[in-house]
Structures are given as structure tokens and as C-alpha cells.
From TrEMBL:
Domain Glutaredoxin: from-to ranges: 44-101
Source organism of this protein record: Kinneretia aquatilis
Gene3D superfamilies: Glutaredoxin (3.40.30.10)
InterPro entries in the cross-refs: Glutaredoxin, Thioredoxin-like_sf
Record's protein name: Glutaredoxin domain-containing protein
Pfam families for the chain: Glutaredoxin (PF00462)
Amino acid sequence: MAWRELWPLLAIVAVVWGLSTWARQGLHEGQAQSLRERAKPGDIVMLSSRSCAYCSQAREWFEAERIPYAECFIESNAQCAQRFRETLAQGTPTFLVRGQVIVGLDRARMVALLEQAGAVQR
């Protein structure tokens, strides 16, 4: 197949990829704003591991977006390790959002839990 025949297909793939990336970025920005508005210190606790790359990515995102959260490391904090075992989670990061367990950085679920808790508190 010649490049001339592939060009339209490659252009479509590039446009779809670009739009998808743009939409995902906008979604994450909206979720970050919602979390900043709703999360109070102590609402979000990240149970993490020092060797976890996903934990590092989550930490960087929370800090860059100025979202209040607490972090504890399961290797060096016995209480944190116990909380992690109690969640029955298979890996880190595991988040406790007002006591509810979320495995992985699920921004939409965090927003939903904080919105539910906010509606109950009114």
C-alpha cells in the first residue's frame, strides 16, 4: 500500500487522538477543580508504597492541582499498613475518601463521593 493511500487514514487517527487527549485533559481539569472546591484536609488519604510509580503520579497530580490530601506509606507506618490490609485492596495507591475505599486514582469516583457527602451534610 502506498503512502498516498494511507495518508487519509493517518490524518483521521491523528485528529481522533488529538481530540481524545484534549477532552481527557479538560475532564481532568474539571475534576481537579471539583476536588479543590469540595475536599477538606483529612477527606482524602492515600495509602501508598514508596516503590509505586502510580503513587508518585497521583502525588504529583494532587500537589500540582493543590488538592488537600494526606499520604501514608504502608512500608514505614504500622497504622497505615493495618488500614491497607483492612481495605483488602490488591495494590497501591489506595484512597480513603471520607472512609470509602477507592483503588487507583479514580478522580470521578472521588468527586462523586465528596458530592454525596456534601449533600448529606447540608
